[in-house]
Specification:
The chain is mainly β and 203 residues long. The protein is built from three helices and 13 strands, in the order βαββββββββββααββ. It has helices spanning 6-15, 168-178, 182-185; strands at residues 2-3, 31-37, 47-54, 60-63, 70-76, 83-89, 99-102, 107-113, 118-129, 135-149, 156-164, 191-193, 197-200. The strands form four sheets. Strands 1, 6, 9 and 10 form a four-stranded antiparallel β-sheet that branches. Strands 5, 11, 12 and 13 form a four-stranded antiparallel β-sheet that branches. The longest helix is centred in the C-terminal third of the chain and has 11 residues, at 168-178. The protein is globular, with a radius of gyration of 18 Å. Residues 1-26 have low confidence and may be disordered.
Length: 203
């Protein structure tokens, strides 16, 4: 479900001062985002585990679904991205209890069967008519369940993930979709990247 009504967007962005505040205003937490492959890879089953760990001295908030501000990279050994198929749109309001506080030393992980279904966050900017007859560019955002298709000739898949806490466009989309800016919600406002895990796909 994508949210892009102009009144709602203006209200959220105005309430929290537009784009994300500068790094000097934040007590930036130290976080580590890691990835590992699960056992039992098969042509129709690609499973990985994402883990976030608080390695700093300050608590921060994290999405238990590992969707908000997270992007996947799933490609064959030659770097060509695997086909992505939309499974279903996320319906209804995003649940607030999916965000949890991680204290220093705590970690959280989630397993994803990428060839079956994974919740993905999307953001963009759209053009809307304003009351004066012109147009205004505003952020839109939403989530949908997607799956990745492993072609028959692919023998190795490279998977990684990145958290885009430093992306002001992504932060604006988060604010529209979740109703609060990520820095106000306590999420890390830095970019986190996993290593690339290579998964051998049996014939």
């Amino acid at each position: 479900m994508f949210r892009s009504t102009l009144a709602a967007i203006v209200a959220v962005l105005s309430a929290f001062g537009g784009s994300a505040c500068s790094g000097s205003e934040l007590d930036v937490p130290q976080a580590r985002l890691a990835i590992r492959a699960s056992e039992g890879a098969a042509p129709n089953r690609l499973v990985v585990v994402l883990e976030i760990e608080n390695q700093g001295q300050t608590a921060f908030t994290w999405d238990k679904e590992f969707s908000a501000l997270v992007e996947w990279s799933v490609a064959a050994a030659d770097g060509i991205a695997l086909e992505t198929v939309a499974v279903a749109k996320a319906e209804g309001e995003p649940k607030k209890d999916r965000f949890v506080k991680l204290q220093p030393g705590e970690s959280l992980s989630k397993e994803f069967e990428l060839t079956k279904s994974a919740l993905a966050f999307h953001h963009a900017r759209g053009s809307f008519a304003d009351p004066a007859g012109g147009s205004v560019i505003v952020p839109t955002a939403g989530e949908e369940f997607v799956r990745y298709v492993v072609a028959e000739d692919v023998r190795t898949v490279k998977v990684s993930a990145a958290y885009r806490g430093d992306d002001s466009d992504a932060a604006d989309g988060f604010a529209v979709y979740f109703g609060v800016r990520p820095e106000k919600a306590g999420l890390p406002m830095e970019r986190l990247e996993t290593e690339v895990v290579k998964i051998a796909v049996p014939e």
